[in-house]
Amino acid sequence: MNHMKTHTKILAGISLIAVAGCTDPGQVGLDNGDYDKTKTGAIAGGIVGAVTGALVSDKKGKGALIGGVVGAAGGAAIGNALDRQEAELRDQLGNDDIQIVNTGDRLIVTMPQDILFGVDSYTVNSSLRQDLLTVASSLQNYPDSNVQVVGHTDNTGDAQYNQDLSERRANAVADVLMNGGVSFDRIQAFGRGEDQPVSSNLTEDGRSQNRRVEIVILPTA
């Protein structure tokens, strides 16, 4: 019976959070696009908070609601910070070849390997170092995040060679970020080789899209 009550309170807390997520964006001073991302962070944070709060709630079951409210506030703050960081990076980079995706709980900065490196090389092109240093500066301005640098290749050639090359290229990008002042403790670098394509490897355009390095910015607070 107690488990049933706890589950009911979790669902009630989540329902309140979902309703709160439908508040008029004009009330928080954001346009619709920014508001959608902030709302996503608030709802995600609220659900996590509600579940966590319920698990540690007292016998009267107030934990789910309290945890949900606190989690929603934290999630909204994260979403708001990501919105600002995304806007600043777009303005500062000004490079149409670099893609920035804001999912509401992280930023993914994608750089094509064709502009980052020469053929079969893992030395960062000098023309792109400044863009990476711009990302490093942004990471210092927003210190409450960890960073994953992930290398990807197309499926041309030997799979193990592609895996090794993706790792070397990810490490090369991570080195530039650290040289730009980002703490070693915040960065993980690894390669996925040809295992995670975003397009078909049957065309040159698709293979070009698959050759990329992703800088994934993950808020920690």
Structure description:
This protein is of the alpha+beta class and 221 residues long. 55% of the residues lie in helices and 14% in strands. The protein is built from seven helices and five strands; from the N terminus they run αααββααβαβαβ. The chain is globular.
Rg computed from alpha carbons, rounded to a whole number of angstroms: 21 Å
Strand order of the largest sheet: 1-2-5-3-4
**Shape descriptor:** globular
The DSSP helix count reads 7
Helix content: 55-70%
Summarize the main sheet. 5 strands, mixed
Which class best fits the helix and strand makeup?
Answer: alpha+beta
How far is it from the N-terminal to the C-terminal residue, by CA?
A: 35 Å
Order of helices and strands: HHHEEHHEHEHE
User: How much of the polypeptide forms β-strand, as a percent range?
Assistant: 5-15%
Number of strands: 5
Low-confidence stretches: 9-32, 50-57
